[in-house]
Amino acid sequence: FKKPKDVQTKGENKMRGKEIKKLREVLLRELRIDEMGLNQLFPAKADIAVRKFGGGSYLTFITVDTCVAFVQVDPEAPNATYPTLTSLWRCPEALATVTIAPPVSKFVINGADVMAPGILAVDDSAQVGNFVSIFVAGNPSAVGVGVLLLSPADIISRREGRAVQAAHHFGDCLWEASGSPRPEGFNGAEVVPLSVEAPPAAQQEDAEALPGAADGKNGEAAAQAAAPSEGDDAAVAATESVAISSEDMEDRMRLCFLQAARTRIKDRDLPMPVNTLYAAHMRPSRRSEWSVDVKLTRFKKLVPFLATLEEDGLLRLKPKGSEHFLVEIVRKASEYAEFRPWPKDVTAAAGEEGGSDAAVARFQVEVLGKLAPSAAVLFGKSEYVTHEQVATILRDYGNENTLWAANNKKKMQGDEVLCSVFGEAEVVGTVEQLSTQFMKGCKKFHRVTAPQRGAAAGMKTSIRPGAPPKVTIRTDTRRGHAVTLVRGLDQYGLDADELAAELKKVLAGSTTVEDGELMVQGFWDVALKNHLDKAGIPPDSLDVKAGSGKSQKKDKKASNVVKY
After folding, report:
1. Facing residues of 409 across strands?
2. pLDDT value at residue 159
3. Which end of the chain is more exposed for a tag (fewer CB within 10 A), N or C?
């Protein structure tokens, strides 16, 4: 399930009483669960359905209340049904288990097969050719499902070769289709143990300490990790509970403050009680995959933590009675100016408001100017700046040095420093004019901050030369039908197939992708421009080419509506 299209089905049929009874018999026979366990997966009065693939594929999904609970590789073959991760998290004993070392989890999450040296323990009852669940030592939630290729005896005695062929894993598109749930200990693209869980002694003695590696030719993980041996502190540490350190929690809270200050808190909102700052702004601003708790810092309480930010020049606090208030955010501080907020749709607040909206920005694109060495006197160590950053620094510099014209408080008259930075004999103009002038003189770059797919989550930022690339939207006719064509999405990392499926629902029209070009039935140049604009592509980078008579009407209304 590497691509979104791998989980797209052609149709759905609701299962009836006899079919459900037969399915239950198969699951009770093939899985390691009893009636009570099966009832956890098939609640009373749940809607159970079968989703089938086209193209002659035997693969089917069995859903419980629209969530995929089981995958059938072949309905007619024995031992060809396995539970999804969401089902295994509710009923962990459903399959025979294979336990891997924590460092191996990152390879499994990348879709690699499990190699024998990376296995710490395996159920003696597991049989070759059957499905097994993959667990990380010390974590109670499965990280994947696969087919056992070697017998338990061979895995322990030979310690080489592929042992489990991956079928479904945390971070794949089936997991994403289930809502991207993230159990405790699933941090980014790895799984950490929540408790010490040593493998059986016999297997521990036979395990060899071999490093993890990846087979570049086949894309398989030669994930070969050592089982901890007695007295080996480094190996034991790999299976101990990994909790976030107090320093890391302080870094998270610092970033959450900066995110809240940049995206939520206005100067007119101040003064603000520090408890309101924390509960209503800092915590909702955290990334959705983060947990934030001031009690896990060295300070244990909020005011001492915020006092460190005050010492660093990021804010000002003022006590009033038994309460403390945030009275100023120092927006000219270099750390504040250099902080790049993550998109709002990846915050905890966005997740609590409910799901992903197609109109919410998926990534952020910023036009940058690369600074010349002569600009360091004004911009410090910064290498790139945005138009907004230039305007803020120029405004602050004008206020500090009283550079405003006597007869026009909006016009700045530059001093020797500004003239040297601009490379001009005279610098005169409004902040907006001077910011535009300065950016034109800089070498153009652009910064793209986009969410990473799959288990890694989080945001990835990259700086690329030149202006943001163009995305072309043009209307045309194909075989007598009106169509709108979009090209250039791949330059921003947008998956054309995924966007096509999304637009099919939004526009209620047919969509296809051919040679990287997205085609939508009908003239939708205006709607597509607005949709891509909200997705994060800069408006200046959207090149709309609609021929005469081939443009979308502003209002599409039904012609059969009668007004009285």
Report:
1. none
2. 82
3. C
